[in-house]
Request: fold
Amino acid sequence: MKVSVSTISISELDVDLLIVPITSEDLTDGIEELSDAFGTVIDRARTDVKGETGDSAVLYPESGTAKRIILVGIGESSSVNAERIRNASALGAEAATHVKAETVGIAVPSIDLNSDLTAQALVEGFILGSYRFNQYRTKDNTGEPAQRLVIQTTDQDKQVRRGAERGRIVSEAVCSARDLVNLSPDDKTPILLSKAIEKSGKKHGYDVSVWNKELIEEEGMGGLLAVNRGSQDPPTFSVLEWHPENVRNSRPVVLVGKGVVFDTGGLSLKPTKNSMDSMKSDMAGAAAVVGTMEAIAKLELPLYVIGLIPATDNRPGQTAYVPGDVVKMHSGMTVEVLNTDAEGRMILADALSYASSFYPEIVIELATLTGSAVVALGEIVAATMTNEDDGAQERIDAIVAAGNSSGDRVHPMPMFDEYNEELKSTVADLKNIGGRWGGAITAAKFLEHFVDYPWIHVDIAGPAFLDKARGYHKAGGSGFGVRLLTRFLQDLSEKKR
Reply:
């Protein structure tokens, strides 16, 4: 989608649809300007639109050059934030698709939010709200999204342009992640996923190297190889690298994404309904890492960043690993397998162990890891945890702040040492599952055994894949994590100026 910024007056903006976010105060204090621009139709709209969050009405103006206007409520001006702006913009995107608008304008509202962030939120809400995944449809009945988006502003032009461009780049990266998650499992075997990552790297300007099964065996990634034993397709391990000349960090930030391209549960077989039927999304962590690499490369972020993606499916083939198996991991530790459906932590443990070879400044790992995280927090936010050392609170504060700013919100959970009791094995160093309670935490405690550096774990099982649309999120893959990681890295880059 082409995104531009215009300082032309609102009455002269020639578009098929003009989106006008309004606060509840606008209907009493600021309606005159709109009435002057578009006629008495604005005054008559007060009957249907009060400016409250979610209010909307499509109007056909008596004057001005816009063919249609949609007024979208964003609530009281004192409580407007970026997330409300995104959702209002997404409502406008739905209207644009409905009326088949090719060109759409959005007026930057006068609110107490900096214009850079406001413009980014407007663009993000519109592009993400316009998203359609139609690759497998023989008939497209979802409507075509707009081709051109114009952000209309009257001042602070440079800030608006900067925010709008960032919003476009980040949103397109989120859509890339959504596309990967929504692909049919047949179209994203580990090898096909690695080829898609290589294609992404060539297109967006970051480096990719892919390990085949032989290299994975040489490296001794026992967890990844164990999970792969029941599969007909070999595993891959992709290493993504963004290393511009003007980096501000000597030691890299490493991003790790779970790449289970389909999860049957293995011999600990999942039920199909409400479980296995959405397991093409079990590589959403990997998709988030890919989308983030695309975003930071296009933003030319001056940080050295590495992405690690272990990829396999988890199937109950004839040679599948079984409960009771003891697996020697990349780190040298041994793990007693008691549930083959706890496979994500097995492949992530190897990737986290390998990450040590880069002497990272920090490692952030994302995974659709546990149903327990969904039980605890639902689909709205992801769970986040970190290894408890002197910098733990600073890391948690940073990832929470990035989530609140980006819209990919996270909530911290405890990592007390007592949870390690659940992972003690009678035959190996660890077992791969804890007890019935606190499963999201014991899964994180399992992974903690394989890190010797500052580490943030994000369990995205809840928000990564949605059964029904919500706001600017469509049903299916949400692309959760791309905006979170990009914002975190942007904040880190700013601290290093």
Observations:
- The two ends are 32 Å apart (CA to CA).
- The chain has a mean pLDDT of 95.
